[in-house]
Design a protein that fits this description.
The protein is an alpha+beta fold. The chain contains 18 helices and 15 strands. 49% of the residues lie in helices and 17% in strands. A hairpin with a 2-residue loop joins strand 14 and strand 15. Helix 15 runs parallel beside helix 18. The protein is flat and about 80 Å long.
């Protein structure tokens, strides 16, 4: 008997419902419902599930459990778990914006207070303090750091959140293991992507690289000191449980560790690239315009995502001349508009938009995904209409497709965009204060998982059809513009 059958039977019997009468009320043949309950027949009709949930008057938590169990029945446990993890990832993105509120760690000692070239640390507090001291010392001297720890490591996580916004020119090179294939372990690649997103949005110069394997083999209990933190002033080897470590200050040993780290790094793949300045984003977009990945994109935008529809006139009028390197940004953006449209016309972009964000833009002229400093003023009504009608024309021409969701919580906030580019890159963009940071994850498993979640969302019961969406946008234009 499947978990779904057991849960369905439990919910029905818990309400002391007459099974035959319940079946007739829901339009299900009574013997069929009995078979669903005893596991002799699998349910493959979502309408039946919805009718049963309504007739049983399930609570939100009960409905969620039954829906998740139904998804496992339809998709298998691994694929269903991936969809849930992508949903969790999107819902968790706002937590990244609150990471600056992390509780400060107070180091109990500094490395230069230790006598001799080696020290053995026997408590988690000592390890935490040594790690903090090693990081803060390197950042203060603008020295680079090398890290070999899983991204979800608690010590590392707390440290990045605490010291990430420290003004420094230091580069942090982070190497870790990603699981090949669909993940079945305690921590999945999708969860690792969440932690890396946190670090790359808080650390200005963060470089993440990965290798495929089974993380437990490299970070498990059988590996005595798997963690490694390196700076020019110290090397810290950390146990798997984080409760003991060896700190070394011998220059020759540190040099040897850096050499070995470099050899491993050569075998790793870059996980992400990122840009966070107007010029950097413009040049990254310029490079992407020559990349076939943009021909086929699946995006979820909390904002408008309409840059492909800007005209030369609009960018000249609204781009803030006070932003750094204004002339170079302007030149790059003008080049992008001409290349992007030609590229996208040859492919297909499908985008899930937040209806409230589109309505807000039509009413105010402010674009949620751009920092306020980027634009000199809100767009005029005529230019708002120009952009929205340009998006609708692209839909009519067949190379652009917009989808609104019905009455459900939108997956991302207004200043977040996420998407998959031709099944090769998973992209995340966020506006935080005066910075727009764009992240590009180069791991196809993340792309595959996001596309699966996206396709289910677009074709599911919560999505409006493209035709219904276009009609809704036309109503917004007629009402507000």
């Amino acid at each position: 008997m499947s978990n779904f059958s057991e849960l369905l039977s439990q919910l029905i019997r818990g309400r002391e419902a007459n099974v035959s009468q319940l079946a007739r009320t829901c339009g299900i043949h009574p013997p069929t419902l009995h078979q669903y309950m005893n596991g002799k027949r699998a349910m493959h009709n979502e309408d039946e599930l919805e009718r049963l949930a309504a007739a049983l008057q399930l609570s939100p938590s009960e409905y969620e459990l039954l829906s998740e169990s139904y998804a496992v029945l339809q998709l298998g446990p691994e694929r269903a778990a991936e969809r849930q993890k992508i949903k969790w990832l999107l819902q968790s993105l706002p937590e990244i914006e609150r990471q600056c509120n992390a509780v400060a760690i107070t180091p109990q000692f500094q490395p230069n207070e230790l006598s001799g070239s080696f020290a053995v640390l026997h408590t988690e507090g000592d390890v935490q303090a040594a790690l903090f001291a090693l990081f803060s010392d390197a950042l203060q001297h603008d020295e680079d750091l090398a890290v070999m720890l899983p991204p979800e490591n608690d010590l590392l996580h707390n440290l990045y959140l605490l010291l990430g916004h420290f003004p420094s020119k230091s580069v942090i090179r982070h190497i870790f293991c990603m699981e090949s294939g669909r993940c079945t372990g305690r921590i999945t690649n999708i969860e690792r992507a969440y932690y890396v997103t946190q670090y790359s949005t808080s650390v200005a110069r963060y470089v993440a690289k990965y290798y495929y394997g089974h993380p437990d083999e490299y970070f498990g209990e059988t590996n005595l000191l798997p963690g490694l933190i390196l700076s020019p002033r110290g090397a810290l080897r950390i146990s798997a449980d984080g409760r003991s470590a060896i700190l070394c200050r011998d220059p020759e040993v540190i040099r040897c560790y850096f050499e070995r780290f470099g050899r491993v790094e050569q075998l790793c793949r870059p996980l992400l690239s990122h840009q966070d300045t107007p010029l950097g984003i413009a040049r990254q977009a310029e490079r992407n315009c020559g990349d076939d990945r943009l021909r086929h994109a699946k995006l979820i935008s909390g904002g408008l995502c309409a840059s492909a529809f800007w005209s030369d006139e609009i960018i000249h009028e609204y781009l803030n001349p006070q932003i750094p390197q204004y002339d170079d940004v302007l030149r790059s953006l003008l080049n992008i508009f001409h290349m992007t449209r030609a590229l996208k016309r040859s492919g297909r972009t499908t985008i899930i938009l937040n209806r409230e964000s589109v309505r807000s833009f039509a009413g105010s002229g402010r674009i949620p995904e751009y920092p306020d400093v980027f634009m000199v003023k809100p767009l005029s009504k005529a230019h708002r209409r120009y952009l929205l009608e340009g998006m609708l024309r692209a839909c009519d021409e067949g190379w652009y497709q917009m989808v609104f969701l019905k009455n459900c919580v939108f997956p991302v906030k207004p200043h977040w965009d996420v998407g998959a580019l031709d099944g090769k890159q998973f992209a995340v963009s966020v506006v935080m204060g005066a910075i727009n940071r764009e992240l590009y994850f180069n791991e196809r498993g993340l792309c595959r998982a996001f596309e699966d979640y996206f396709d289910d969302l677009v074709s599911g019961k919560y999505a409006m059809t493209p035709e219904e969406t276009n009609a809704a946008i036309r109503r917004i234009i007629d009402e507000l513009l």
